[in-house]
Amino acid sequence: MSAQRRAQVLLAILAVALIVLPFVSGSYVLSVATLILFFAFTGQAWNVMMGFAGQLSLGHSLYVGLGAYAAAGLFFHYGIGPWAGVWLAIALCVVAGAVIGFLAFRFGISGVYFALLTIAFAEFTRIGFDHITWLGGAAGLFIKVEQRDTWDLLNLRGTPKMFYFVMLALAAGAFAFCTWLLRSRAGYYWQAIREDEDAAQALGINTFRWKMLAVVISAAMTGVAGVFYAFYYNNLFPEQTYHISRSIEIILGPIIGGLGTLFGPILGAAVLTILADSITEIMAAAGIEVPGVKQVFYGLCLLVVIMFLPNGIWPAIARRLGLKDK
Description:
By secondary structure, the chain is mainly α. It has 14 helices and two strands. Strands 1-2 form a two-stranded antiparallel sheet.
């Protein structure tokens, strides 16, 4: 069996397993699976910017927050559903990403300084939203929970199973979209820029234009995830939504799973979410409470992967299975 055929078979098995999962699992497993899919989606979004184009962002919580507050604010005050609010969320995130990208790439800000710029914008926005009373300010914005026993896809009001399938559809769409991007002209240009920007520019690639495209696509995708975040949790606090720990959770999946790969963000999200949640449950059952235990666990996972699997978990597994490491 060819490598491509094996990959298709494995992908089909994974798809069937994910579709069947909510019918054979309890509410706890379903909630963990939904969280895995959420981080798989946001990981794919961040991977476009860093894994494909090589632009390190540590402030992706900015786009989660903008998307979440945009859709939640419209629904809370005017009753406008999330599928209309998502367009405002995308627009705001595209503008924010374009502003950050323009300031950075126009004035030659790159590397660690670009990463610091993204953190700064996320922190400025967090402080600003603390004082926007129309969106709840520091006290938080709470969306009314209705029709929890029925499926209202139009307003994203429904059962945990409904949210799971919505997130599964989004994650599958992100995977297909990123597969197309990676194999398109944009994907090849981004990889050239990631490997050697000066060489890419010497070959005639407009690096400014293509880096800007990577930033706005990544921002828009993350904004969509923010809309789901708002209607899944039904409450938003600037301190939580825009906090840098949110950005760290987004980026660790692709890094640990395999930066620049398609399956890496999915595998990384599954490994981190399952292990971190298991540790939390074990410590809770034992009556042990250690502040910041998840952050310590994330740091240890990152250390282990960097030491023993510097390219991530997925490339190593792919080689074992005779598959392409993408």
